[in-house]
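User: Quick sanity check before I run a bigger batch. Here is a single chain. Can you write out its predicted 3D structure?
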Amino acid sequence: MGYAVGIDIGGTFTDLVMYGDTNRLLITGKVLTTPENPALGALEGLRRLMERAGIGGREIEVVVHGTTLVANAIVERKGATTGLLTTNGFRDIIETRREKRYDLYDLSAQFPEPLVPRSRRLGVPERIAADGAILQPLDSQAAGAAVDTLLARGVESVAICLLHAYRNPTHEQALRDLLAARAAHLTVSLSSEVDPELREYERFSTTVCNAYTQPVMARYLRELQEGLWAAGVRAPLHIMLSSGGITTPAVAARFPVRILESGPVGGVLAAAHVGRSAGSSSLLSFDMGGTTAKLSFIEGSTPTLLTEFEVDRAYRFKKGSGLVVRVPVVDIVEIGAGGGSIAQVGGMGLLKVGPESAGSRPGPACYGFGGVLPTVTDADLLLGYINPERFLGGRMPLNRAAAHQAIETRLGKPLGMEAIEAAWGIHRVVNENMVNAARIYMAEKGRDPKRYDLIAFGGAGPIHAAWLARKLGIARVTVPPRAGVASALGFLVTPLSFDFVRTYVTGIAGVDWSHLNQLYATMEAEARGMLGAAGIAERDITLRRYAEMRYVGQGREIFVPLPAGPYGPAAQPALTQAFDAAYAGIYTQTNPGQAIEAINWRLLASGPTPRRALISPLLPADAARKPGAARPVDYRKVYLGEGMGGEGVGFCECAVYDRATLPAGARISGPALVEEEDTVTLLGPETKAEIDAFSNIVITIHTHAR
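Assistant: Done. Predicted structure follows.
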């Protein structure tokens, strides 16, 4: 029982958490992300944590890691030179897409360029029917010629996507064998393994994304593993999945599309954990970091899952403008609003904030790394919300004069404002951007914000959370301990898991129960093999079944939890009831008598929840401190503007509290600031907070939006 480490690499900062199972020691840290090689920043941050803990690498028992590397490789087009082998006549599927316009009124609507250009997309003679029957055998001679052509064109990775291969993968497997015989160094992705589901565009797009990022991810994981070994760390390395589980490096290297959203998911898991400990089951998770803000609904202490999402959107917030990736992913909406979001005067002479970010280098002007563009962090510093001497626990002092100059030069003078007025404009605009995005997200999901508590975290989240809650009509905000590194904390409270899927289109009234049971038996065997290889004993494996179902005639399915198997005719009412419950939860009513069909059948396999799921970040060791009053450690002038509550506008003397000294039961009245090593919580006027038994700051908002 040694130490567990969580590492979350974000666009601006890399967050780290180290927790000791035996001594309940918790150490957190932030270092600037090194975009040229993210592993360098992660390893440097780990070295610092080990020094602070006074331990060696052999005392670490597990490292859990989340990264945006896969998404960045796709967005920045820094993946491998990739080829595509497909059925003759279908090489343009990834370009024709769904043949839909995401904006009917935009005559110049753009789509992201395909990851594989047409010159490296080749067809081979073969054909499999929708039921899996072979209509045309694979032409091995023509397939060999296509492979030789791709090799001559310098491919490093190949996606093999044949028509209806999800029903019969034999031709895809034969092509893989042919590639292995001629070029064993290539990485190969089969659509029948990456995404064995119907709908050609989605399956092709997902497999191409996987092939495009496989070599990049394999190299990165190898470098990270070698760096850990060099630091003396012999513990297993686990990788966060977009679905909220963790997996091994071998599986992550084989299926990199499964970790596209691995970083943001950790925060949602931490928020769910906070909600469970505090007795709240309906939550809105709010994570605002250096580059983006993320929102996610949590019902019944469980994050909502989607079965597909988009990456590299031509228009960041327009659904349908990106590359579709069909893998299980926690439902998260991202907003281009973070501490590093750049503020500028837009084309119409109005203040605009984001979505562009200053990143870690050069970063905001106040970082002192050469940045000259004003950002949200610069504005929050000028307004007094951030203490320049205590940023990151004092390890990275901020330059207030540089922030003032950037805001005054780039915004104040062009807009005819004082620097402070322009800084307040930045703060207010970024807040309104997040409020508007949250309202759209809630409307799309049919959710009433007044039913939810807000869980706020991320380096910038607690500064902006009370404003967001007030505008949305949310009455309570919870800021957990170590909120600035919550995503990395979330990594430490999730089990090893993986999910599997098979397509079998059938009406519920006409299920071939023998065939369905065989599908699940096959998936369960794969699951036990994969988790067993990761060291999970069979007795500790939990299997959960799901299906994607719909009324006959509908165009899209919903995600339905299923009862345990095996299944037979007696299971038909239970499957119908499961669908009705899921459908009513989304649309509030059902259609009795309408035929139901299932499209895909899924299995989620997971290992045991880690012991550290009950650890001190949410049940802190210092919670035993005697109850008492909150005592300020300082006072500072802070700008209070319209929309924060109260009537005053301007600088006000504000009490500053050190979170580490606040005992359970302590009460604070706003305006006030609560500072900790990696974030600051801002309480406006007419706002009260109390420290609960788990050391959470629980903020009560007294004025609600109408």
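The longest helix spans residues 200-230.

User: Great, the batch can go ahead then.
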